[in-house]
Amino acid sequence: MNITSRSNRVPEVIGSFWIIKVLATTVGETGADYLSTNLKLGLSGTSYIMSGILLLALFNQFRLKRYVPVSYWVVVVLMSITGTLITDRLVDELKVSLVTIIIVFSIILAVVFAVWYANEKTLAMHSINTPKRELFYWAAILVTFALGTATGDYLAEALKLGYLQAALLFGAAIAAIAIGHFYFRMNAVLAFWLAYILTRPLGASIGDLLSQPAKNGGYGLGTVGTSIIFLCIITSLIIYLSLKQKRVDHSSIDW
């Protein structure tokens, strides 16, 4: 019996990847607000709880040594919530300005990429096939969530652009990157990471637009309603991807 090797620890970058990514970032925004505000856990309490759960999820992810849709996307959702909480705590508790946060996390992300590339000579998604590369990968993703949260809040709230306008702006920027990649030969790795960073403020803006009350420029669905809707969609897509992976694994076995 010959089983095809599938050592990559992250998913293929196709349409479903980007859909779930945006939905996960939206849940990160609304989920963090729900836990800290509606459940009255506070930013500190919520941060400690979610950080602990995230570490457990990461432990399981590294233990699997391959891409498993449920495990991978649970980590992404938890990182989205944790990244949001990191930024919210810096702003609300430590009174750090959004501009400062954007600058600092941009530098941190650049350092992560620089160290990653110096060690592995690649930042490509399809090459995440060792624990070391996956560690760099998740470190970069956590920073992108914190950076994206600050960027989205800065445009929508500090500059008073509004949630809808901010979402349209970030969506247009992602579309421009896609056009640059597919039609003007923009480097695939650069295009991926730029788009990945921008999906965070896009998702955050969508989450705030749907959940915030009308007086704040939102549609008033609330954090609970918005989170449930998006979690149901994410769950449905993960189930589909899991079943698809099982069919592929089965077909790759030659008896």
UniProtKB/TrEMBL annotation:
> Please, which domain of life does this record's source organism belong to?
Bacteria
Q: Which UniProt keywords apply?
A: Membrane, Transmembrane, Transmembrane helix
Which residue ranges traverse the bilayer?
Answer: 41-60, 67-86, 98-119, 135-156, 162-183, 190-207, 219-243
Protein name (database record): Uncharacterized membrane-anchored protein
Instruction: Record the organism.
Output: Chamaesiphon minutus (strain ATCC 27169 / PCC 6605)
